[in-house]
Structure formats: structure tokens, C-alpha cells
Target: BAH domain-containing protein
Amino acid sequence: MAPKHGLNGSSSSSNKRMKSESSEPGSMSSPAAVQEAMSFEIKIPLMNLDKKGKESKQNAELRALAEEHISPFQGFDAPEDELNYHYTVVPNTEWAAMRKYNNFIIQGDTYKNNQFVYVKGKTETGTQPRDFWIARILQVRAKDPQHVYALVAWMYWPEELPATAKAAGETSTSSGRRKYHGNSELIASNYLDVVDVLTFAGKIDVERFSEDLDDYAVSDPDPSKFYWRQTFCQATQRLSDLPVYCICNGHYNPDKREYEHICDNGDCQTLYHSECLVEDALIKRYHEEYPQNETATNGTKPKDKKNKNGKSKQKIYSKEFKGEFAHDQDEQSPPMIKITDKRSTPHTVTLQRVACPKCSTLFE
Model:
């Protein structure tokens, strides 16, 4: 669903700020930069204190008033409680005095807890989804019809991810979108804020994408909706893992049909890139011819020269063989790899059945 109300028409401001070194200890910040202060702020008290340690008066007060956030999000292979923690809304007297509601109405639209919404404040004007922040409504409280506030958990556009956000195995210090992020993808987080509901600009359909295999292919998300599959933890700055595919351990981008092959073995069903299957066949062919030669894990010579990224420039088989999928085969024939032997003059060509690199099942 597209943004409905636009960015204009509200004097209220949200407090969606980038996490910065100037943030107070125990305060929670969120994806973008806005200078104006919020009426309410999220504080994170220390709950599990060392019995020998001395607790500050401020932490004791915050801990006594803390509520537990049970996150509705769980990343792939992530601990069930990874995004859960205790928080305190301050000033708490005003927050606690307000009445809780399950729904409310803005310009004729009914909003409910657990719905996803567009939030104004990212730019001065805008009509496209990325002109807005996205959040999930967790709780609504009101002092009166003119003062209605929502506790929200922020969703991140991939471009909003800070450089501190890291998934397992990531070493890059760059921020933002990864190559596996789709155009309609959001990242769920446990960054909380309290915002005035007049900053809401409409509802947005967001669903979880679980990458389930259906009929020997990954079932793609609904193209009419946005989706999330990865989580971002504010305490650890950890991006949750994603399923890995192929022998290159790549991730799935729903916008790209980059995994063209899948193992026919029902117990394996590994997805593969065409180029990775060709490379695997060429490495195996090379070792059949030169069993005494060593190969690095990426199919290169261990002592070969490396480029700026630390990767070897030359594959171990590059001087002897080249390969590609045979595209002139009958549709009823199993997939074949055409291997050209460059050692002979003229070059000789052989066709080879494609075998799964993990379980050795021949592709049909």
C-alpha cells in the first residue's frame, strides 16, 4: 500500500535518529537524523547487576519502572529472545498516566496494534515509500484525542543500515544495502521510539519472507507487498544470518534469478549458480589430469599472485581448460557442461553430465 497522507500537514516530529557517540548511555536511537527533541524517550536500564557492584540512583529508578519488550521478530537461526530486553519510557509519570488503546483513527483510517505504518519526517515532501520511515505499532496510549502516542519498533530500509551493522562473517566497514537485499526488502529491528500518531502517513503491507523451497525452487515473496527476513539487534549491532546457497555460500536476492539449478536429490536440494557448477567441474577435471597439484579452496593456485581484494587472479585450470553450459542440447536431455581442452591443437571438446558438488547426484 502506498503512502496515503503525504509528509505535509503535521507539526509533530518523530525522533528517528542515527545511533551516534553523543547519545546518552542507555538511550535508544534509530535510523535517520532529525534534530528536534521528542516528548518521550526510551531508556535501557541495566537489569542484571553484579551483586558487588554499586547501582546508580538513575538506573535503580529506571529499572523499577522498566517494561519488557518481547520482540515480534526472530531472524533465521537466531535465538528466540535475541531482540528482547527491558526498557523504560521517560518521562514515565506522563507515559504511565495515559490510557492504553488497541486502535485509533486518523483521517478516517483505523490503525491497530501490530500493523506496519509509514512515518513522516524523513524528508520535507514525498509520495514514494522510501520517502518515509517504516515502523510496527506495538502500543498506543492517549492523554486525550489531541495527544495520542504510539510505541513503535523501527524497520530499516537496507540503505539506512549503519556501518556497525554486521552479519556473521562480514568484515566490510561499509554501511547500507547488501547485494542480496531485494528492492522491496526491510530489516526488522528492536529499536524502539514513542511517536505522535499524527506522524503516520498510512499503512503498509509487510510480511515475513522465509525462503522456503517449493517445487524445487525458492518461493518468492508476494510482489505486491514489502517483506522482511533479517533482523538487526540494537544491543549487539548484529544482523541475523540468512540461508546460504551454492558452493560459494551466497545469499538469495528475490529480485534476481541467479540460482539457475537445483539438485534433484530431495535430501539435498541445494541451489547453484551456473558459473559455480562449471568451475567445480573444471577443478575436478584438472585434478584428474594433475592429481599432484594443490588447489586453494577457491580453485586457485595457493602461491598465485593476488589482487587488491586478496583474491587470486588466476584459476588453477585456466591455462588448460575452459567450460560452459551446453545450450544446444535437446530439452529432454539432462544438463551438460562443455569442457574445452586448450592443451591440444585444435582444441578438443567433451560433454560432461552435471553432478551436484555436495552429494554427487547427477542433474536430470
Notes: Residues 71 and 83 are 6 Å apart (CA to CA). The radius of gyration is 27 Å.
